[in-house]
Amino acid sequence: SGEELIHVSELISRGAAGARGDDMKTLKSAVLDWISPKGAAIQPPLHRNSKIDHGFNHKLTRSPLCPTGLDWKDPEYRENLQSGEMLVCRDQWPVFLYANHTYDADDLWCGLLRNRLLVSAYKHIFTSPSSVDKEPKATQSGNARLHGMNAVTTTSIAYIAMQVQFALSSSSVFSWTDTTTDSETFYHSLLDLLEDPDESKEVDELLMWWNRQVFPTSSAAKRPISANSTLAKIR
To answer: Is there a contact between 44 and 69 (Cβ–Cβ < 8 Å)?
Structure first.
């Protein structure tokens, strides 16, 4: 009946919100560990139970959050971002989406969504926290196995990017419409790109790269047969 459908929908929404909240709690400290210099104390210290000094308020968290195309070394940009006078539109993506925080204005796909921080967060949530520093294996534990997940999806990549953005930000409570993170716009702007048919070639290559990092034995991680190879001609 219609009432049953509404009830099931509410349960699913409630379950998704609960899972998202759990992911945020576990990632908050983990992300700080991953971006901290190895074997050195964070100076000035970053609070782990409070996010008031996160976001653009600390050099460790503001560097990956810096919008692509903006120069954080510019004192005017830095001051306006720290003060909140300049609000970052969430379709103006942060540099942590790019490998090695390197943004190429002439090749916007170069390194996009291939940052090791994103891979660590993905493994932390979808395989297990202990798998982050290990080579991926054929048998994975955690949410991926429990839900029969054996390949990376575009929606899961966008979800992880949103989670990392929130973990780095100074926002203490998640809200889709929070003006600091504007998670809804950020999430959907990524999905718009990843689901764009005109970008299918780049997206297929991206998914293959991700599957090698997380599910290397899955068929999704294997390269297609080259069109001009001997094997392709025989087949």
So the answer is: no
Sign of CA dihedral 201, 207, 210, 215: negative
* Digit-coded pLDDT (tens) for 77-106: 778 777 777 777 656 899 999 999 999 989
Residue 208, φ and ψ in degrees, nearest 5: -65, -40
Name residue, tokens 């540099």. Answer: 95
Determine the Cα–Cα distance for residues 206 and 220; give it in Å rounded to an integer. Answer: 11
Q: What residues pair up with 98 in beta bridges, in sequence order?
A: 112
HEC letters along 158-218: HHHHHHHHHHHCCCCCCCCCCCCCCHHHHHHHHHHHHCCHHHHHHHHHHHHHHHHHHCCCC
Which has the closest alpha carbon to 26: 190, 164, 136?
164
**CA distance between the termini of the chain:** 51
pTM confidence score = 0.78
**Is residue 144 packed enough to be buried (19+ CB in 10 Å), middle (13-18) or exposed (0-12)?**
buried
Asked whether the bond before 45 is cis by omega within 30 degrees of 0, the reply is no
pLDDT band at 127 (very low <50, low <70, confident <90, very high): confident
Q: What angle do CA 203, 22, 173 make, to 5 degrees?
A: 90
Dihedral (CA of 152, 157, 158, 160) sign: positive
